[in-house]
Amino acid sequence: MANDEFYRQLRDRVSSYSGPYAEYVLLLPDLFVLLSRLMLDSRIGSRHKAMLGGALAYFVSPIDLLPERTFGPIGYLDDLAILVAALNRVLNEVDPQIVVGHWPGKADLLSTVRRSVEQADQMIGKGRLDSILEGLGMRGPAQGPA
């Protein structure tokens, strides 16, 4: 399956990263799996799937604010901010147990998303997250998981 291959390649790329925001960068493979699984879940509405799909498209696109080819693993910070902003919205508007049921990671999903959203402006620069989200049709991030 293509998702499995992408997951393994992403895990290989970030596994040895120990720079700024390493705890968040190392979550990317699991966040990718989570959003991919949510896209396939019939309990997730089309509006939320469109939001998740937009976040995943930004993530896999080579054109973004911090290109990984130029910046290495630190270049994933903008992708991470977009993924958690979309996920935060879904967590606020869908039964969180549906979302948590798909989480492959070991960390507590709700607290991880909350911390990541709080750090997003620091990670990529004040106000940039809102600009990217607006460009993706997602506007600003919701304030916190339900």
Assembly status: single chain
Please estimate the helix content: 55-70%
* Helix and strand element order: HHHHHHHHH
Tally of contiguous helical segments: 9
Overall pLDDT score: 85
Overall shape:
globular
Tell me the β content: under 5%
Alpha-carbon Rg, integer:
14 Å
How many distinct beta strands? Answer: 0
Structural class assignment: mainly alpha
Care to describe what's here?
- By secondary structure, the chain is mainly α.
- The chain has one domain.
- 66% of the residues lie in helices and 0% in strands.
- The protein has 9 helices and no strands.
- The protein has helices spanning 2-14, 22-25, 28-40, 46-60, 68-71, 77-93, 96-101, 109-124, 128-135.
- The longest helix is centred in the middle third of the chain and has 17 residues, at 77-93.
